[in-house]
Specification:
Radius of gyration: 36 Å
Distance between the termini: 155 Å
Number of strands: 13
Shape: globular
Length: 348
């Protein structure tokens, strides 16, 4: 009976391992990682210092006298600068693209997504996205639940299909500090799927994310930004802060709440002229802010010239005060200069 007993034991052990179960030191059953997940990049928790630093960076200046909100669409596949947010499509070592990072943050419950609305984004409790019902089940992604976390294999994350982003930018002038600031307020991933039956593709905006919520994690995620320098020298936060991406303006915040297409029509040339006009307005406002520097420099030059003039006048007055000494010195100079002439006359 003993040989059959050992055979049954090994069969049972093999069945447990095939089911993907293992035991940790405390005896609890845990999920066995797939080979692709063994060295997968993870998202660490925020430290207290990082949280406080992010709150300080997110604090809105209190002396904003001018502000303009712009919406852009950024295509990751048509521009080399934008490709930094798309590649690698699948995680490689410690590198992952932007949407893969966002997906993991949502899976771990570290950030909050808000519904995409046609009229505009609303960052309120009532508009929060249920990640399980509103995304995982909606797009039929395989997942397992571990406590409050959702575990999805990295090969099932649709990072390759998110090829566009909508970005909400803010341009403002702070009168207290005299600074012109630009920054990202929110981002929205756009899922683009090819239609293999009818051709073309479908485009669907997924959800809005407040940039202040994801900034601490983006500031620790390194990306490659150049084909000629493969060193990971920038973080995703640096990438957005330095405006290294390019995109087309699709809307500006206005009183009527109309998009650019609603204002100028669907003609590509008319839209391009409107986009160039908005860009020119922003650049002109930035340039015109610093005119007072020229005035200040002119005033400084005027003061300097007045100082020189004053010094010249003081020199002249001092010369007048020493008129006797000046007369004697000039007489000596005349005598020295005229002596050869007089000697010539005497020789005659």
């Amino acid at each position: 009976m003993k040989p059959f007993y050992y055979i049954g034991f090994f069969v049972l052990l093999f069945a447990c391992t095939q089911e993907g179960l293992a035991q940790d030191q405390s005896g609890r059953s845990v999920r066995r990682q797939r080979p692709s997940e063994a060295n997968a990049p993870t998202v660490s928790n925020l430290t207290e210092r990082a949280r406080i630093k992010n709150e300080e960076a997110s604090r809105m200046p209190g002396h904003i006298v001018w502000e303009r909100i712009i919406y852009r669409t950024v295509d990751l596949t048509k521009n080399e600068n934008n490709a930094a947010l798309y590649y690698p499509v699948q995680p490689q070592g410690d590198r992952q693209n932007l949407f893969t990072l966002i997906f993991k943050l949502l899976s771990d419950g570290k950030i909050t997504a808000y519904n995409y609305l046609e009229g505009g984004e609303v960052f309120e409790e009532s508009q929060k996205v249920d990640f399980e019902e509103g995304f995982l089940k909606k797009y039929q992604l395989l997942y397992t639940k571990e406590g409050n976390r959702f575990v999805v294999d990295e090969r099932d994350i649709p990072g390759s299909e998110v090829t566009q982003y909508m970005i909400k930018e803010g341009y403002s002038f702070d009168q207290a500090t005299g600074t012109f600031k630009t920054g990202v307020i929110a981002i929205c991933p756009v899922l683009v799927r090819e239609d293999f039956y009818y051709g073309g593709s479908t485009r669907e905006a997924l959800f809005w994310l407040k940039y202040d919520d994801i900034r601490p994690y983006l500031s620790r995620e390194m990306i490659m930004t150049s084909n000629y320098n493969n060193a990971l020298t920038y973080t995703i936060d640096d990438y957005f802060h330095k405006n290294m991406y390019t995109g087309d303006i699709i809307k500006t915040v206005n009183m009527m709440g109309r998009s650019l297409a609603q204002e100028v029509g669907t003609d590509p040339e008319a839209q391009k002229r409107a986009q160039d006009s908005i860009e020119s307005q922003l650049n002109a406002f930035d340039r015109n802010l610093w005119i007072y520097k020229v005035v200040k420099d002119t005033a400084t030059v005027t003061q300097t010239e007045e100082g020189k003039t004053k010094k010249v006048k003081e020199t002249k007055s001092a010369t007048r005060g020493n008129k006797g000494q000046q007369t004697k010195s000039s007489a000596k100079q005349k005598t020295e200069k005229s002596s050869p002439t007089r000697s010539v006359r005497r020789n005659r």
